[in-house]
Specification:
- The complex is a heterodimer of chains A (about 80) and B (about 150).
- Chain A is α+β, with helices and mostly antiparallel strands.
- Chain A has one domain: Roll (Ubiquitin-like (UB roll)), CATH 3.10.20.
- Chain A has three helices and seven strands.
- The termini of chain A are far apart.
- Chain B has about 150 residues and is α+β, with helices and mostly antiparallel strands.
- Chain B has one domain: Aldehyde Oxidoreductase, domain 3 (Alpha-Beta Complex), CATH 3.90.1170.40.
- Chain B is built from four helices and eight strands, in the order βαββαβββαββα.
- In chain B, the strands form two sheets. In chain B, strands 1-4-6-2 form a four-stranded mixed β-sheet, sandwiched between helices. Chain B has a four-stranded antiparallel β-sheet with strand order 5-3-7-8.
- In chain B, a hairpin with a 2-residue loop joins strand 7 and strand 8.
- The two termini of chain B are about 25 Å apart.
- Classes of the chains: A alpha+beta (about 80), B alpha+beta (about 150).
- The interface between A and B is medium-sized, with 19 and 24 residues.
Chain lengths: ~80, ~150
Amino acid sequence: MPGETAKLVFLGRLADRAGASERDVTPGPLEAVLTTLDPSLAIDLLDERVRLALNGALLGERGGIVLVAGDELAFLPPVSGG
Amino acid sequence: MATDVRLLDSAFDPARELAAFTQSHSQAGGVVSFLGQVRAEAGAQAVLELELTHYAPLTLPGMRDLADSAVDRWMLDGKLIVHRSGRMGPGDPIVLVAAAARHRRDAFAAADFAMDHLKSRAWFWKRERTHAGWRWIEPRESDHADLARWG
């Protein structure tokens, strides 16, 4: 049910690690969402060099993120440049 | 002052883009352009294919902000940024940057500034395929040093 899920988006090498460029998840606190993922992927997503964007807006810090239905959270590893 | 900033998922013709840009800024005394293309080389390290991925909510807006910063910083008549995403082969154009200005130094600086920022700040992730397979490209230290020149 797309209306009841949140979406994680994986960019760059994180898409390779996740095996997909995006994944639908059950909404909730980010910590809880990450526990539903493969542990090695979750560790990569928690790398401090990975920036987060919630619904297209860059986040300054990642504490206290709670995903609600329809949210899109992107994980952005260091860019390679154009 | 017109800026023309585009993110394309298919091939473009840099000569045609530059001709159109130059023609639409005939009042400018000078136009400086830079073309980045996929290296074509022989040997085991040769790049067979390059893939750029972007994140739509951030990549194009970031490129537009970059063009606006250049316009704020130098006296320009026009600014062009055309950037590819997707898969490209050897010799394919990746990025075209051009600046039109009354005075050449403004045009040189604005083009240089835009390229330094695109190379290290733009929201692109790049991987290339060689005979050894696909490999993700990390930003280089020199790219960050280039960026630092602009304060």
